[in-house]
Design goal:
The complex is a heterotrimer of chains A (about 500), B (about 500) and C (about 500). Chain A has about 500 residues and is mainly α. Chain A contains 20 helices and four strands. In chain A, β1 and β2 form a beta hairpin. The relative contact order of chain A is 0.09. Chain B is mainly α and about 500 residues long. A two-stranded antiparallel sheet of chain B has the order 1-2. In chain B, α7 packs antiparallel against α9 and α14 packs across α22. Chain B is built from 23 helices and two strands. Chain B is globular and about 70 Å long. Chain C is mainly α. Chain C is globular and about 75 Å long. The chains are: A mainly alpha (about 500), B mainly alpha (about 500), C mainly alpha (about 500). Chains in contact: A-B, B-C. At the B-C interface, α17, α18, α19 and α22 of B face α5, α6 and α7 of C.
C-alpha cells in the first residue's frame, strides 16, 4: 500500500482539513486585535480559499479510482459529488458572514470545513468502516454546528434533538453494518454483494437491510425518520441548516444509492403497482410515498419559511428516492443531478431567509412582505430559488425532478411499474406550488408594511449578493442547459 | 424566423427588468415594439407557409438538448401552430395597447406580460413534447403574478386557483409524458416520431384521458372550468384578454397536438365522453352566463361556453371538426380579447363598477359610443353572426359534429341560441340602459377613449371581420396541415 | 362595373353606410341627405337592372367567384324575376322609409348608417345564390334591424327587440343546422345546384350514400332537414303560431323601421320559401301538406280576427300584415298539390305579385301611420281619433286608397295577387279557399272599421289643428299611390318581369 498515493489522492480532503486547522490558528491569533466582522471575513475568506483549492485540485487531477484495496472509490461520479459539496460549503460559509451568529468564529468555520471533509469521504467510501468513520466525522461536526447559538432555547432544543436522533440513526446503521459483516464476512460493499445474494431472504439479512435503511433514512430525512428535520432547519444557525439541508443530504443520498445498488442489487424486490416483492424497493417506495405526501401536506400549513423549507425538503427526499428506485445508472445520475440543483436552490433560499430574518426579526411569511421594494435583487433570487424548488421549468429543479421521474418511468423495460409513485409525486408537487407561491406572494405581491422597518432598502453584503446571484444564475443555467452535465454524469456512472 | 417570436418576447421581458426605464414611454414603447415584432414575424411566417400537404412542417430549429433523455430543442411550425402564433401576436399587441394605463410597477408588468407571451409562442412552436411542456409551464408563473399583483376582485384567490388548476393539469400531462417515455423505450420526446411509432391500444386507452384532461383543464373543460371565470374576473384587463384569448388555447392546442396526435385510438375510445363534456360546457357556460350580475363574469362564462365548441370540434376526429376547432380557437381568442377589453379597460377603468344593475343606469352607449360600437361588434361576433370569425368556426365544428355525433350537433345549435340570449342580455344591460341616472353629458365628461384603446379595438375587430369574411386565409393553412401523415391516424377515427 | 352589377347593388348602400358612419360630429346634418341619396342610387341601380333584364328562364347578371373552397362556398350572385322584383321592392321601400323618417332624430349618423346597412343586407339576400352568402346577408340584416328597434323604438323596445332577435335567430340556427346536414351529404351550398339535385331526386340518394342509410330513412331525415329550414323561414314570415315576436316588434319599432320590417323583411321569408324551400324540399313539404295548409288557413283567419281586436293602429296593421302574408303562404303550399300547370302558375304568380304589392301597400300604410304619429305626438290608439276627414281630406283620401288597395279592391294592386292565389287554392284545396275567404271578409271589416273610426264621426277638439298632407308629404306618397293604381290596372307591368321565373317555379312545384 502506497501511502504517498493515498495522500495524493486525498489531497482535496487534506487541503480542507489543513485549512480548518489554519483557520482555527489564525482566528485564535487575531481574536484580540481584530473586530468581529473583520474576523468573520478573514476566516470565511480562508475557508473559501481552501474550498477553492480543493475544487481546483479535483478539477485538475484525474480521479484516482479505486484506492487502498478498495476502501475508497474516487471515481468521476464521487468526485462530482465532492466538487458539489465544496461549492455548497463555500456558499454556506459566505452566507454565514451575514448572520454573524457567534464570536467563536474560528471554531465555527473549522467545523464547517471538517463536516465537509466527512461528507466528501462519505461520497467515496466503499469500506463500511470508513463509511461509518466519515459519517460520524460529518455528523459530529454538524451536531456541534447546530448547537452554536447557545442563547437560543429553540436552537439548543433542536441541536439536542438532532444529536439524539442522529446518534440513534448511527446506532441503527452500525448495527446493520455489523450484521452485514457477520453475514458476508466482508466490509466492502462491492465484495459483499455476491455473497449476500447467495443468502437469499435470510431473516437476519432482512433485519440488517432494514437497519441500514432506517439509519440512512434518518440522514436523508424521509418519513418516518424525519422528525428532527423541521426543528433543525428552523432553529439551527442558518448556515448550518443550509449545509444540513444541502451537503449532508446530498452525501447521504449518494451513500444510500451505493449501499442499495452496489451492496444489495439482488435484494431489490419490486414495488410495482401490481406486483410487490420483498426487498429494499418496497421499503423505499413506502418511505417515498409517505415523504412526498406528508412533506407537502404539512408544508401547506406552515407559517415559518424555514420550517416550510424543512417539510418541503422531506418531500424532495421522497422525490429523490424515486431515482434510487430506478435502480440503474440513469437513476443515479438523475438523483445526483437533482440533489445538486436542489442543494443550490435550498442554500440560496436559506440565504435569503437569513437576510430577511436579520432585518425583520423573523422568518415568518409576513416578514417577507414587500421584499421586492426592499431589495429587488434578493426578491429576484428568491423567485428563482423557490420556483426551482417547486420544479417549474426552465429552472434546474424541474430538469432534475424530470430526470428522476423519467429514470423511474424507464426502469423495468417499459413496464411502468413505478407509475403509481410518479403520479403521486407529480400530483403532490402540483399541491406544493401552493405553499411555494405563498412565499413569493409575500415577496412580490404584498407591499412592505409601514411598521416593520418601513420600505427602506435592506443592506446586503456584496459577498452575499455575489453568492446569491451566482447560485441563482447557476440554477437558471443548469435548468436551461442541463444536457452536458447530465450526459457527463450518465457516462461517469455507466462505467 | 418564426422562432424569433419566442426569443424576442423573452429578450423584451429581460430588457424591461434589467433596464427598468423610468420614463413610462420607454416601457410601453418597448413592450409594444416587442409585441408588434412578434405579430409581424408571425404574419410573415403564416404568409409564407407553403400549405403543401406533402411537406406540412417548417422546421425552425433543431438541436440536441438533453441527449441522455433523448430530448431535443425542436421548434417547428405547421398551419395550426401558425394560426395560433398569429392569434398570439394579435392578442399581445392588443393587450399592450389596452394596458397603456398601467402605471404601478409598469416595467415588471410588461416584463411578465412578455414572458407569458414568449411561453405561449413557445408552446405553439414546439414539436418536442418536453420542450412544449417547458414552455407550457413557463406560461403559468407570469399568469399568477399578473393576476395577483395587478388584478382586481379577489385577485390572490383567483390567481392561486388558476395556478393550481394549471399545475394539476400539467401534473397529469407529465404523468402521461413519463409513461409514454417509459413505454416507448426512452428514446425520444419528438412528437412526430412518437406519433409515427405508435403506442399499444391498451396504453392509449388510459394515457389519452390523462393527457387530454391534463391539457383540457386549461382549455376550461367542464367540470374543471371553474378556474376560468374567477381567474378572468380577477385578472387585469390585458391578462384576461390573454388568459381567455390565448392561454385557454394552450390547453386546447396541447390536447390536439399531444393528446390526440399521439393517442388516436385512445381518443376514439373516449371521444363520446369528452364530446359530451364539450357540449355540456357550451350549454352550462351559456346558462350560467345568462344569470350573472357581474359584467366580467358573463364574459368569463362565455369563454367556457365557446371553448366547449373547441372541445366538441376536436372530439369529432374529422378534418372539418378539428379544423373548425382550430378556427374557433383563433376566433374566440380575438373575440374574448375584444369583450374583455371593453369590460375591463373601457368600462371598468372609467365607471369603477361591473355590476350590470349599476351599468344599466349609465346609458353607456351614449357616454362611450365607441365602446358601445366595439362591444356590439364583439357581441355579434360572439353570437356567431355570419360575417364574423365566430360563425365560420362554429359552422365547421357543427358540420364536423354532424358527421360524428348528430344529436350533439343539435344540442350545439341550442347552445348557439342560448349564447345569443345571454349576449343580448348583457349587451342591453351594460350599454343600452334606457334611463340614465345622470345627464349623459355629465357622465361622459373626460371619458373619451384614448388612441391606444381605439387602435387595439380596431385591430381586433378587423381581425374577426377579415377572418369572418375570408376564412380561407386560415383554412388554407390549417386544412393542409391536417393532411400531414402524423395527423392521419387521428382523423381516421371519424368518417371522411 | 360590367359583370359586377349585383355586387354594386349591395355595395351602394354599404358604401353609403360607411360614408355616413364616418361623418364627423359637426357634419351630422349631412347624414340624412347622404343616406337618402345612397338609397336613391340603389333604387335607380335596381331600376336600371330591371330595364336591362330580359324575361327569360335562368339567372341573369350572374357573378361567380370562389370564396371558401374548403366548404365549396362561392360568391355566386344572380337574379331571376323574383329576385329582381324583390330588389326593386327593397329599393323602393327603403327610400320611402328613409323619407318618412323624422328629421330631428337623435344620433342621425348611426340611424342612417344602420338603415343603409339593413338595405345592403336585404339586397344581398335577394341576390345571393349560395346558401352561405345568403345566410350571411340574412343574419346581417337582423343586426341593424335589432339596433334600429332597440335605439329608436317605443317604451317596450328592450324586451321587444330581444324577442325579435332571439325568435329569428333560433329559426336561423335550425335552418343552419339543416343546411349543414345537406352540405355533408351533397358537398355544396350552391342553391341552384341543390335545387337541380333535388329535382333529380339526388338529395335523398346522396344522404343514403353518405350516411349509409336505406332510402326510406334518408327520406325521413330529409323531411326533418326540411323542417329545420322551414322553421327558419316560417318565423320570419311569420306563419302562425310562430308570430309571437311580430306584433310587438312592429308596434314598438320606429314607424320607418316597421315599414321595412313588413315591407321587405317579411318578404325574405317568403323569398326563402320560393328560392330554397320549394326547390329543395318540395317533396318533404308535400308530405306534411295537410298540416301546412291548415297552418296557413289558421294564419289567414287568426290574424284577421286578431287584427279586429286591436285598438293600436300599428298593432292592427301588424296583424293585417300577417294576414296578407298568410295568403302568400297559402298559395305557396296549395301550389304543391295543384294538378294543372296553369293553376300552379296562377298561384305562384299571385304569390309574387302579392309579395310585391303587399310590400308597397303595407309600407305605405305604415308610412301614413308615421305621418299620423307626427301630428298626434305619438298617439295612435284608434279611440283617440275621429272625424279627421274634415280636417284633412287629402290625408283621408290617400289613407283610404292605401286601405282599399290593401283589402284587395279590384282595380287597385291588392286585387290581382289575391285573385290569382285564390284561383290556385281553389284548384288544390277548395276547403282552404273557402275558409280563407272568411279571412278576406274579416280584413275588409277591420280595415273599413279603421277608416271609419279615424276619419268619420265628430272631430275631437284637440285635433282641430290637424294639418293636411303638406306638399312634401304628398310628393312622398305619390309614387306609392301611382304604383297601387298602375299595378292594379296593369299587373302585367310586374308579371312581365317575373313570367319566366313563375314558369320555372311552377315546374319545380309540380307534384
Amino acid at each position: 500500500m502506497n501511502y504517498g498515493a493515498i495522500a495524493w489522492a486525498l489531497a482535496p480532503e487534506a487541503i480542507l482539513a489543513l485549512t480548518a486547522l489554519a483557520v482555527l490558528g489564525m482566528d485564535a491569533a487575531l481574536a484580540r486585535r481584530w473586530s468581529v466582522p473583520v474576523r468573520w471575513r478573514a476566516a470565511v475568506a480562508a475557508g473559501v480559499a481552501g474550498c477553492l483549492g480543493a475544487l481546483v485540485w479535483m478539477a485538475a487531477a484525474d480521479p484516482p479510482g479505486r484506492l487502498a484495496g478498495g476502501m475508497l472509490v474516487l471515481d468521476d461520479a464521487s468526485r462530482f459529488v465532492c466538487q458539489a459539496l465544496a461549492v455548497l460549503t463555500m456558499a454556506s460559509l459566505v452566507l454565514s458572514i451575514e448572520t454573524a451568529l457567534t464570536e467563536h468564529i474560528g471554531e465555527y468555520v473549522a467545523l464547517m470545513l471538517l463536516a465537509t471533509v466527512g461528507l466528501m469521504l462519505m461520497a467515496g467510501a466503499e469500506n463500511m468502516v470508513l463509511v461509518y468513520a466519515s459519517l460520524e466525522l460529518a455528523s459530529l461536526s454538524l451536531y456541534a454546528l447546530a448547537a452554536f447559538q447557545r442563547e437560543s432555547r429553540h436552537g439548543l432544543e433542536a441541536a439536542l434533538k438532532y444529536f439524539l436522533l442522529g446518534g440513534m440513526s448511527s446506532a441503527f446503521l452500525l448495527y446493520g453494518m455489523s450484521a452485514l459483516y457477520g453475514l458476508s464476512g466482508e466490509v466492502e460493499l462491492s465484495r459483499m454483494a455476491p455473497k449476500l445474494a447467495r443468502l437469499g431472504m435470510d431473516p437476519l439479512l432482512i433485519v440488517a437491510l432494514a437497519s441500514v435503511v432506517v439509519g440512512l433514512g434518518f440522514k436523508v430525512a424521509v418519513v418516518p425518520f424525519h422528525l428532527w428535520a423541521p426543528d433543525v432547519y428552523q432553529a439551527a444557525p442558518l448556515p448550518t441548516a443550509a449545509l444540513v439541508a444541502s451537503g449532508s443530504k446530498m452525501a447521504s443520498f449518494y451513500l444510500l444509492i451505493r449501499f442499495m445498488l452496489e451492496g444489495f442489487p439482488e435484494l431489490a424486490g419490486r414495488a410495482d403497482w401490481r406486483g410487490w416483492e420483498g426487498g429494499w424497493m418496497p421499503l423505499l417506495g413506502m418511505a417515498a410515498a409517505l415523504s412526498i405526501g406528508l412533506g407537502n401536506l404539512v408544508a401547506l400549513v406552515q407559517s415559518s419559511v424555514r420550517r416550510l423549507l424543512a417539510y418541503s425538503a422531506i418531500a424532495h427526499a421522497g422525490y429523490a428516492l424515486l431515482g434510487v428506485m430506478a435502480g440503474n445508472a440513469e437513476g443515479t445520475a438523475a438523483v445526483v443531478y437533482y440533489l445538486s440543483t436542489y442543494a443550490l436552490a435550498v442554500i440560496g433560499a436559506f440565504g435569503v431567509a437569513g437576510i430577511v430574518e436579520r432585518n425583520s426579526g423573523g422568518d415568518r411569511l409576513e416578514n417577507f412582505a414587500g421584499l421586492w421594494q426592499r431589495s429587488p435583487l434578493l426578491a429576484a433570487c428568491l423567485f428563482v430559488f423557490i420556483l426551482s424548488l417547486a420544479g417549474l421549468p426552465p429552472l434546474a429543479g424541474f430538469v432534475g425532478k424530470f430526470a428522476v421521474f423519467a429514470a423511474a418511468a424507464g426502469a423495468g423495460g417499459g413496464g411502468l411499474g413505478l407509475i403509481w409513485l410518479i403520479a403521486w409525486a407529480l400530483g403532490m408537487s402540483a399541491v406544493s406550488l401552493y405553499y411555494y407561491l405563498q412565499v413569493l406572494k409575500q415577496a412580490y405581491v404584498r407591499e412592505a408594511e409601514a411598521g416593520r422597518g418601513s420600505s427602506a432598502a435592506w443592506r446586503v453584503l456584496p459577498a452575499t449578493r455575489v453568492v446569491l446571484l451566482g447560485l441563482a444564475v447557476a440554477v437558471v443555467l443548469l435548468g436551461c442547459f442541463p444536457g452536458g452535465v447530465l450526459s457527463w454524469l450518465r457516462a461517469a456512472l455507466g462505467s | 424566423m418564426a422562432s424569433w417570436t419566442i426569443y424576442l418576447s423573452f429578450i423584451g421581458a429581460a430588457l424591461l427588468l434589467a433596464v427598468r426605464p423610468r420614463d413610462m414611454r420607454w416601457v410601453r414603447g418597448l413592450a409594444l415594439g416587442t409585441a408588434l415584432a412578434g405579430l409581424v414575424l408571425g404574419l410573415a411566417a403564416a404568409a409564407r407557409y407553403p400549405a403543401d400537404p406533402a411537406a406540412p412542417l417548417i422546421v425552425l430549429a433543431r438541436a440536441r438538448w438533453i441527449p441522455s433523455l433523448g430530448i431535443e430543442y425542436y421548434l417547428a411550425a405547421d398551419g395550426i401552430s401558425l394560426t395560433l402564433v398569429v392569434l398570439t401576436g394579435i392578442a399581445s399587441v392588443a393587450g399592450v395597447l389596452f394596458s397603456w394605463n398601467v402605471e404601478r410597477r409598469a416595467a415588471e408588468y410588461f416584463a411578465l406580460y412578455l414572458a407569458l407571451i414568449g411561453g405561449v409562442y413557445g408552446v405553439f412552436l414546439s414539436f418536442d413534447w418536453f420542450l412544449l411542456f417547458v414552455f407550457y409551464e413557463v406560461a403559468i408563473v407570469p399568469k399568477y403574478f399578473l393576476i395577483a399583483i395587478w388584478g382586481s376582485t379577489r385577485r390572490e384567490y383567483g390567481a392561486m386557483k388558476l395556478a393550481l388548476y394549471s399545475l394539476v393539469g400539467s401534473a397529469l400531462v407529465l404523468v402521461g409524458m413519463l409513461a409514454a417515455y417509459g413505454v416507448s423505450g426512452g428514446q425520444t420526446f419528438n412528437l412526430i416520431e412518437l406519433a409515427r411509432g405508435g403506442f399499444s391500444s391498451g396504453f392509449q386507452t388510459w394515457a389519452f384521458p390523462v393527457v387530454f384532461v391534463g391539457f383540457a383543464v386549461l382549455a376550461g373543460i367542464w367540470p374543471l372550468h371553474t378556474w376560468a371565470p374567477t381567474g378572468h374576473v380577477a385578472a387585469p384587463t390585458a391578462a384576461s384578454m390573454l388568459l381567455a384569448g390565448v392561454v385557454m388555447k394552450l390547453g386546447a392546442y396541447g390536447a390536439l397536438r399531444v393528446g390526440m396526435m399521439l393517442f388516436p385510438q385512445g381518443a376514439m375510445v373516449w371521444r363520446p365522453l369528452f364530446a359530451g363534456l364539450g357540449v355540456i360546457g357550451i350549454l352550462y357556460g351559456a346558462c350560467v352566463a345568462l344569470v350573472q350580475r357581474d359584467f366580467k363574469f358573463v364574459i368569463g362564462y362565455s369563454s367556457v361556453s365557446h371553448m366547449g365548441f373547441v372541445l366538441l370540434g376536436l372530439m369529432t376526429l374529422n378534418a372539418t371538426g378539428v379544423g373548425g376547432a382550430v378556427m374557433q380557437m383563433f376566433s374566440h381568442g380575438i373575440i374574448a380579447g375584444l369583450l374583455f377589453a371593453v369590460v375591463g379597460r373601457m368600462v371598468y377603468d372609467r365607471m369603477h363598477t361591473r355590476d350590470l344593475a349599476d351599468l344599466e343606469g349609465m346609458a353607456l352607449n351614449r357616454v362611450l359610443p365607441f365602446a358601445g360600437l366595439t362591444f356590439a361588434v364583439a357581441c355579434a361576433a360572439s353570437m356567431g353572426v355570419p360575417g364574423f370569425s365566430g360563425f365560420i368556426s362554429e359552422l365547421l365544428v357543427v358540420i364536423g359534429a354532424w358527421k360524428a355525433f348528430p344529436p350533439l350537433a343539435v344540442l350545439a345549435g341550442v347552445g348557439i341560441v342560448a349564447g345569443a340570449a345571454y349576449t343580448l342580455r348583457v349587451l342591453q344591460k351594460s350599454f343600452f340602459g334606457d334611463h340614465p341616472r345622470a345627464p349623459v353629458e355629465e357622465m361622459g365628461r373626460g371619458q373619451g377613449l384614448t388612441w391606444p384603446e381605439r387602435a387595439g379595438a380596431v385591430l381586433l375587430m378587423a381581425a374577426t371581420v377579415v377572418v369572418g369574411l375570408y376564412p380561407s386565409l386560415l383554412l388554407d393553412i390549417i386544412m393542409p396541415s391536417l393532411q400531414a401523415s402524423w395527423m392521419q391516424a387521428m382523423l381516421k377515427g371519424g368518417q371522411g | 362595373m360590367a359583370g359586377h352589377e349585383l355586387t354594386w347593388l349591395t355595395m351602394a348602400p354599404l358604401l353609403g353606410a360607411a360614408v355616413v358612419a364616418c361623418l364627423p360630429r359637426s357634419q351630422e346634418a349631412r347624414a340624412r341627405p347622404i343616406g337618402l341619396s345612397a338609397a336613391g342610387i340603389a333604387l335607380a341601380w335596381a331600376l336600371g337592372l330591371a330595364l336591362r333584364f330580359q324575361d327569360l328562364p335562368g339567372y341573369q347578371f350572374v357573378e361567380r367567384l370562389s370564396w371558401i373552397p374548403y366548404l365549396g362556398v362561392e360568391y355566386h350572385l344572380g337574379v331571376d324575376g323574383l329576385g329582381l322584383a324583390m330588389a326593386l321592392l327593397t329599393g323602393f321601400v327603403m327610400l320611402l322609409a328613409l323619407m318618412v323618417s323624422r328629421t330631428g332624430l337623435e344620433r342621425p349618423r348611426l340611424y342612417y348608417a344602420l338603415f343603409l346597412l339593413l338595405e345592403a343586407g336585404l339586397m344581398g339576400t335577394f341576390t345571393a345564390l349560395n346558401f352561405f352568402h345568403w345566410f350571411l346577408c340574412w343574419e346581417l340584416s337582423l343586426i341593424p334591424a335589432f339596433f334600429l328597434i332597440r335605439l329608436w323604438g317605443g317604451p317596450m323596445r328592450g324586451s321587444v327587440s330581444t324577442g325579435f332577435f332571439l325568435y329569428t335567430l333560433a329559426g336561423s340556427v335550425a335552418m343552419l343546422l339543416a343546411f349543414q346536414v345537406l352540405f355533408l351529404a351533397t358537398g355544396t351550398f350552391d342553391l341552384p345546384g341543390l335545387a337541380r339535385l333535388s329535382q333529380e331526386g339526388g338529395v335523398t340518394a346522396r344522404l343514403s350514400e353518405y350516411f349509409g342509410w336505406p332510402e326510406g330513412v334518408s327520406r325521413r331525415v330529409l323531411g326533418w332537414v326540411g323542417a329545420g329550414v322551414f322553421l327558419g323561414l316560417a318565423v320570419k314570415v311569420p306563419l302562425m303560431p310562430l308570430h309571437g315576436w311580430l306584433p310587438g316588434a312592429y308596434a314598438e319599432a320606429p314607424t320607418a323601421v316597421t315599414m321595412v320590417l313588413t315591407g321587405v323583411m317579411s318578404k325574405m321569408g317568403l323569398y326563402g320559401f320560393l328560392r330554397i324551400m320549394g326547390p329543395i324540399f318540395a317533396d318533404a313539404m308535400r308530405g306534411a301538406w295537410g298540416m301546412l295548409m291548415v297552418l296557413a288557413v289558421v294564419t289567414v283567419v287568426g290574424s284577421a280576427a286578431a287584427a279586429w281586436a286591436q285598438k293600436d293602429l300599428k298593432r292592427l296593421l301588424a296583424y293585417s300584415s300577417i294576414n296578407h302574408l298568410g295568403y302568400c303562404l297559402l298559395g305557396i303550399f296549395a301550389a304543391l298539390q295543384c294538378g294543372s300547370e296553369s293553376a300552379r302558375q296562377a298561384a305562384l304568380g299571385g304569390v309574387i305579385l302579392q309579395m310585391f304589392n303587399h310590400g308597397i301597400n303595407a309600407a305605405t300604410l305604415f308610412g301614413l301611420v308615421a305621418l299620423v304619429e307626427r301630428r298626434s305626438g305619438g298617439l295612435r290608439d284608434l279611440d283617440d281619433f275621429g272625424g279627421l276627414r274634415k280636417a284633412a281630406p287629402v290625408f283621408c283620401g290617400v289613407m283610404g286608397m292605401a286601405v282599399f288597395a290593401s283589402l284587395g279592391l279590384p282595380g287597385l294592386n291588392g286585387f290581382p295577387g289575391e285573385f290569382l292565389i285564390f284561383t290556385g287554392v281553389f284548384a288544390a284545396a277548395p276547403w282552404a279557399a273557402v275558409a280563407s275567404v272568411l279571412g278576406l271578409l274579416l280584413t275588409a271589416v277591420f280595415l273599413l272599421g279603421l277608416m271609419q273610426r279615424m276619419f268619420h264621426g265628430p272631430l275631437p277638439g284637440r285635433w282641430s289643428g290637424w294639418t293636411d298632407l303638406s306638399p312634401r308629404e304628398w310628393a312622398m306618397m305619390i309614387p306609392s299611390l301611382g304604383l297601387m293604381l298602375v299595378l292594379g290596372v296593369y299587373p302585367q307591368a310586374l308579371l312581365g318581369i317575373v313570367n319566366a321565373a313563375v314558369v320555372e317555379l311552377a315546374a319545380v312545384w309540380a307534384p
